Amino acid sequence: MNIDFDSVRALASPTRLEILSIVLNEDEATTTKISDELDKSKSTVSSHLKILKEADLLEKDEEEGVEESYTILQISQRR
Questions:
Q1: pLDDT tens-digit map of 31-77
Q2: Are the CB atoms for 23 and 33 separated by under 8 Å?
Q3: pTM of the model
Q4: I want to staple 73 with a disulfide (CB 3.0 to 4.6 A). Which of 1, 35, 59, 60 is the partner?
Q5: SS (H, E, C) the chain
Q6: CA-CA distance, 30 to 49, in Å (whole number)?
Q7: What is the distance between the terminal CA atoms of the chain, rounded to a whole angstrom?
Q8: φ and ψ at 61, to 5 degrees?
């Protein structure tokens, strides 16, 4: 059995689980939207988003001139 410890660690935080729930319910969400919904600073949310992204649970969509948004990374897209 292979255990992806990055994913386990990423899912161990209630805040990160809330972030995943927001993104899943919205299909995509910006850092601002997430920080507003959680009533947490953008820097706190960004730290959590970084961990989720490094664990291949979220994908960052970058469009020039637009705030970054995040979407759930499908299992088939994970490394």
A1: 999 999 999 999 999 999 999 999 999 998 877 667 888 898 865 44
A2: no
A3: 0.83
A4: 59
A5: CCCCHHHHHHHCCHHHHHHHHHHHHHCCEEHHHHHHHHCCCHHHHHHHHHHHHHCCCEEEECCCCCCCEEEECCHHHCC
A6: 10
A7: 17
A8: -100, 120
Task: Determine if residue 72 is left, alpha or beta; phi over 0 gives left, psi from -120 to 50 gives alpha, anything else beta.
Answer: beta
Q: Structure tokens of 2?
A: 């292979």
> Looking at beta carbons, which pairs linking 13-20 to residues 24 or more positions away fall under 8 Å?
13/48, 13/51, 15/40, 15/44, 15/48, 16/48, 16/51, 16/52, 19/45, 19/48, 19/49, 19/52, 20/52, 20/57, 20/58, 20/72
CA distance linking residue 51 with residue 7, whole number of Å: 9
Q: In this structure, what token pair is assigned to residue 73? A: 């990374």
**Does residue 76 contact residue 61 with C-beta atoms inside 8 Å?**
no
